[in-house]
Amino acid sequence: MLNQTSVTEFLLLGVTDIQVLQPVLFVVFLAIYIINVAGNGVILMVVISDSRLHSPMYFFLGNLSCLDICYSTVTLPKMLENFLSTHKTISFLGCISQLHFFHFLGSTEAMLLAVMAFDRFVAICKPLRYTLIMNHQVCTQMAVTIWITGFFHALLHSVMTSRLNFCGSNHIHHFFCDVKPLLELACGNTDLNEWLLHSVTGTIAIGPFSLTLLSYFYIIIYLFFKTHSCSMLHKALSTCASHFMVVVLFYAPVIFTYIPPATGSSMDQERIIAIMYSVITPVLNPLIYTLRNKEVDGALMRVIRRRL
Fold it and tell me: How far apart are CA 302 and CA 281, in angstroms?
């Protein structure tokens, strides 16, 4: 990735410039990061160690937990360092690397949530063919495909952004390196980069989201027309509730950020929204899945008993 820039490093202005809040925010975000790594780490450990959870649903849940740990790790450690440091710089290569892994993991998670919705669709609407359709080989191929697709989607942005000319200010009005703040600093024409951001990234966001909604639409139609038992209807819908909550928490801020709105949004709004999908959502996912899932709760208790 050869760049034509005179800028060798960027200054991350962070969440706020109010100095008195920096130590407080450090403690808050450190606690969030620890809970995120611990919560998602526990789910990942339980899914791997408990043979009862070796099913497609929990295979994808394990992927989601792994993604959430990595996703927060891309931005939070640097944010925490900057809360306590007066030297809030990041190298050009470090900035492009952060941008790459942020979009790699974010787009992979978007596609993974769609795959998880499809898994629920097959489980509920095609129960007799579930093990045939969602066999181990198919699940592995789907997981590998979305990870590879996410990587090359991010590579597209990182290569194109690295080739821009940065000749003016190096102050990034954000707490991490993202495409939109960097485009505002670039000298010269950024039309292609903006088109890629809104078209390609917009497709990565809207495409899986539409497939997710379609899966749930078919699930609801199937249940209301095929299921005559209220208890069976409640049980089927409850298996989807956790996933649907995660989908809403993830997609709502992402679509607001990467789909161009009719009116411009302020930098403060974009930073708050970015905190929602890059910091808050990953830490809520394990809570949502463990609080509403008896199988995960049971597996966790069995692991605890074995360790005592």
Answer: 27
Largest CA distance in the chain: 68
pLDDT of residue 308: 66
- The pTM for the full model equals 0.88
Distance separating alpha carbons of residues 30 and 279, to the nearest angstrom: 11
- Work out whether strand 171-172 and strand 9-12 pair parallel, antiparallel, or are unpaired: parallel
CB 253, CB 276: distance < 8 Å: yes
- Tell me how far CA of residue 290 lies from CA of 32, 38, 42, 178, in angstroms: 17, 13, 10, 32
Q: What is the per-residue pLDDT across 138-148, written as a single tens digit (0 to 9) for each?
A: 999 999 999 99
- The answer on pLDDT for 81 being more than 80 is yes
Pull the structure tokens for residue 166: 């940065």
Q: Give the span between the Cα atoms of 49 and 45, in whole angstroms.
A: 6
What end-to-end distance do the CA atoms of the chain give, in Å? Answer: 51
Calpha distance 232→235 (Å, rounded): 5
Tokens 């070796």 — which residue?
54
Do 282 and 40 touch, CB atoms closer than 8 A?
Answer: yes
Higher-pLDDT residue of 288, 91 = 91
Residue 9: left if φ>0, alpha if ψ -120 to 50, beta else—which one? beta
The first and second tokens of residue 10, run together, are: 């960027």
Phi, psi at residue 16, to the nearest 5°? -150, 155
Q: Which amino acid appears at position 115 of this protein?
A: V
Give the distance, in angstroms, between the CA of residue 46 and the centroid of all CA atoms in the same chain: 21
Task: Give the Cα separation of 119 and 117 in Å (integer).
Answer: 5
Instruction: Return the pLDDT at 16.
Output: 80
| Helix axis angle, 230-258 to 267-275, nearest 10° | 140
Alpha helices in the chain (DSSP H): 22-49, 56-84, 92-125, 130-133, 136-162, 179-185, 191-195, 202-226, 230-258, 267-275, 281-291, 294-307
How many Cα atoms are found within 13 Å in the side-chain-facing hemisphere of 37? 11
